[in-house]
Structure formats: C-alpha cells, structure tokens
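From the pipeline queue, job 12 of 40. The input is one protein chain; the requested action is below.

Action: predict structure.
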Amino acid sequence: MPHPVRRTLAAAAVVAALAVPAAVPASAAAPAPAAPTPAAVDTGLQGDVTFSVPPGTFTGEVSVALGTSVAGAVVRYTTDGSAPTASSPAYAAPLRLTRSTEVRAQAFTGGTPAGEAGTAQYVATAVTTAHDLPVLLLDSYGRGPVADDDHSVAAMEFQPSGGTTSLTAEPTLVGRAGYRLRGQSSRMFDKKPYRLELRDAADDDLDLPFFGMPAESDWVLRGPYADKSLIREALVLDLGREMGLDVPRYRLVEVYVNDDAAPVAADDYRGVYLLLETIKNQKNRLDLKKLDADDVTAPAVEGGYILKFEWMATEGPTLRCTGAAATCWTDLEVHDPDDLAAQQQAYITGYVQRLHDVLHGPNRADPATGYPSLIDVGSFVDLAIVNELSRNMDAYYRSLYLYKDRGGLLTAGPLWDFDLTFGVGGYFGNEQTSGWQYQQTRQPVATDWFSILLADPAFANRVRARWQELRRGPLADAALRQRVAALSAQVEDAAARDVRRYPRLTTRMVGPFITSTTGTWRGQVQEVQDWALRRAVWLDGTQAWGAPATPVPTPTTTPTRTPTPTPTTTPSPTVAPTPTPTATVTPTAGPTAVPGGCTATFRAVSRWPGGYQGEVTVTAGTTALAGWTVGLALPAGTALSQSWNATVTGSGGSLQARDAGWNGALRPAATATFGFLATTTGAGDGSPAVTCTGR
C-alpha cells in the first residue's frame, strides 16, 4: 500500500469561484483564510561572519559591512563566487554593490582559516510588479544562459504577505543553488524547464524547506507551455493524490531567471511554473528501505528500488530483458540508486523478468503464481485510470515510474509528467474523448504490460469496479469541476502575465503538439473541464467501464493483496454533462460468428488531410482461436506508417497483421483490436479491405 507520507501533496487549498462558465457555487468553494507570512528560513550559510545587510534584493546600490565573531581574526572576502583564501582581499571598508553579487567571506588568524566561512547573496532588481502567487527568483550573476552544465545562482523565495508579494519584499529564503536545463521535448520552448539543487558553502547538497515543502535539496521547475491552461499537470497530481497514488508535492509559482549582468528586469519574467519535488528515495520523498553496498542477499537485497520506463531517453543504468525481441521491454532504467552492486542489479532484473514472463504466459492472473503475486494490483489499476481519464500522450511508455520496497511488491508510481493531457498533444487520437489510450502507444513500445493487463478479465474487472467507485467520489463530475475551480482560482492573475509573456493562445501547433486555439485563458480552462467530463462520459459507457463485470474463473487461492482502499473524501453527487457531439465512423461491416474462423472489421478513429488513424477489430467464430492474421488490402496511394498491438508484414498494398502473442488467444465470439496510422495520397479515403484467418 502506498505510504501515507507520500500521499500528502501540499498544494495550496485556495478554493474560490471558478472564473469560467459552469463554476462551482461559492457556497461549495469558499475561499480559505489568508495564510500568515512564513518566517524566514535559516539557511545556515553565514557561518562565523556577520553581514550588516541581510541577503536579499536591492535597487540601485547597497553597502555591506563585514565582521566576525572570531576574536583577533581578519575577514577576507571574494565577490566572484570563489572561496576566500589567505590571499583574498582583507576587509577594510563597507562593500558598495551595484550589481548582483555573492559575497563570500572567511575569518583568518595568522593566515589560517578560523571558524565557519560565510556567504550572502545580493541581487539587484528593477522589478516592482505585484504578484499573488509565490515567486522564485534565480540570478546567476551574469553567467549567461544555462544549458546542461550547472550554473551557480542565488535562489530566493518570496511568499505573499497580505495577498501580494514583489521582488523588493523581504524574501522567505535566500540561498545558494545550482541550476541547469532538464527535460526533452519541453526544452525546445522559450519557457525552459530547470533542475534546481540547493547547496551549502562548499557546493554540497543542502536540505532546506522550500516553498512550504519538507526540507530537501533537489527540485524541478516544469513550465506549462503547450498546456495553455497552466493547470493540467497539477490537476492530475491532485486527482492522483486523492485516489491514494504516490504523488510528488508541488507548488504553483511565478519565476524570474536573470542570466545577464544587469539588474533583474521585466523581460527576466519566465511565467507560471510547477515547482516539484524530484522522485528519489529519501525520508520526505519516496521513503523506501535504503540499499547499502553490502545488501546483496535476501531479504536486504529486495528493496528499495525506483525504476522508470523512459522510451528512447534513458539516462541511468538499464535493466535488460531476455526473450522474444518482439515482446521484450526496452528503456527500463534504474532511477534510484544509480550505483547498484552486481547482486542487486541481478535481483531486480530477475524480479522484473519474472513479471514479464508471467504476463506473457497462460496463467497470468493466477493469484499465487501470476501477476497478483508480483505487483501491487491496486496501484496499477489506479495508474491505468489516471492515464485513460487524462489520455496522457506519454502514457505507459515514458515517465512511467515503478518502485519496489523491501518486503513489498512492484508498485506503480509516483506520478510524473502530465502536461500533454486532456486533449493536448495530437498523436494517436489524443484529441479524442473516445477510445483507449493504452491501444495508442508507439511501436516499438517500451513495454506491453498494461496492454496485457487491461485485456485480462480479472484486471479489467478491478479497473471497472474501481472506476465506478471513484465516480462516486473524487472523479464525480461535481468533484472534477471543483478541482478545476480551485486550481484556476490560484493562477488566474498570474495567467494574464504568463499569456503576455508567451502569446500563444491562438497558435495551433505549439512545437510538435496540437493544441486548442481558444483565444482566452478562461476559455482554455473551460476546455480542460469540458474535455475531462466528456471523457468520463465515454468511460462510463457500456463499451468501457460502465459495463457489468466479465465472468472469470473463481480463483483457487486467496489473492495476496487487499482490495484497493476506498477514497477518504466525501462522495460527491454525479452531475452528467451534456457531451459534445463527436464524429463517428461506422464499421465497414459488422462481425458475424464464423465456425472455426474469425472476422475483421475496420473503422477510422480519426482523419486529417493526408492520413488517418485506423482500428481493426478481430472477432472469433464459434470455436476458440490460438491466433489470428488479418489481411489488409490498401488502395493505391495509401501506406502504413506505424502500427500497434499486431506485427505487420508484407509490402505495397498487400499487408498481413498477425496477433502480438498476448492478444492472439480468443474465446468463441471474443474480440481483439489493433491499430495503425496511414498516409494517403490517392483518390478516396484510403480505407483498406480486411479479411481474417484464424488458427
């Protein structure tokens, strides 16, 4: 079961009337009392040196006198970021600073360092803008734009007092830090993502409480950009936390980054960001058992491990799959720890391999020997629901975290990277509120585990029951509206500044991602809410999770895991929205039972100029199938560019799609589906003629 401490996502609970249509009533979402101004954080960086002016921001010029509590000592200092030495200038008169400067000082007696060194950060600013969100300021003392190599920066946290704050206010925290770019596709945008590490005077990690979150040194800044509403990722994290999944804490903040030698100016404003905890095995993060170098035998070797599927983008040591290349996983890395002993690497690789082999075997759902004996089923169920509700574009193959603690099962989570959701993205039908996201993953995929699980009747029944339970609680329509209201109320004023900084609302293609062109921020927020409600309606249907449970054989042994706990929130009434009509395509032919054989039907899930996304449904006849092959006769000018859930061979207009192994065995009248993307240059719509052969 997920650890309670990791389910405490400390997002500000400001619930106000939604500034978009269909807002939650004020009586149901009264504003919370204003929080008191936080006390300044003691960073412990000043050592045995005294600074006459507390570190922080200044305008124009500041004069700083230095002293020390070390008797008989001389204070030596630097202003270029280097550590003071016996040959550094000796303090004689107050330092007059006119640009951002880090003053580092050390007491010396007889040429020998005495006491603790001290450091203070002073940042010149010309910005007086009032903000209502907390503000993070990073200033690198003129080192220039950052890339993959760390830059030293002054990091300052400003919290609202009386509802507003500015860069001229007294900061809650002033410290040293290193920062660099992070991310993959997100770094192509002007609104860069950053990795931030708080540091002490010796440039080692320094754990400090940050923006009201527990003390730690490592943080991430993710800037919503393709997500013009600014709230998609926060919405998913909040929902996941309420469901009981492991979720990093976050804060919505506004950010300034100054990388030149001039004072902080208006054009250093970088917009609204999510400041997030990184995922790591630490007390205040994912608190697992620690793996020491000598933990090489059971039970110590069994945990804790944090793993991550990162399709085509792994950075750490990877776990290698053995078996058929067509079904083997790829791009599974060890996220933490990154220095495994050989026996530890062998243990976790073997554990994952057992799960993989079981999922591809005939008795995968057996409670004693199948996947229930190896994974925390409840966490996998909830992750599938989160991915399907949001139609996360990267679902199931990228930013997919898993962990295994000592004495525990492989568990899904923590959640990470959910900005390309609720209609943003455009690949594989992400704009569609109908259909399954788990059937839309790229080929070759990093893993097919979720495709297998969601096709398994026992797992599907768990998902169906859990979905219907959540729809009476945190995923009820009223609850979803209230969650959107709370988040949008936090960022409404900041969103106006973000949009002025990045005028992209009416731009269709944001980088490679398809986005809405609604011309107001409030309209963008409304679209998030409406999309989520329409998606929930489809998932409520009999073709999805509103159908009755599928009969499965009664297990002969008791499952090893307890059912998923019920949500702790008070159930909210379900208010069904009016769904927006969506285009549908009638299958070319309805399936009919064929003795000893199978039928295939084609439908176009979506079309666009020059191509379409297709789906083929295979239906078994009156006898069971061990496998199937679908013939695809493509008209002239049509070609397949990608496929999933089947192996496609052939050339030209005559192709054969063979089952992927795990979806080949079908009971009488049972169905399986596979999909593909096609390009078209000829006449007509490019739809193929399909035939099916069973075996």
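Job complete. Residues 233-247+292-581 form one domain.
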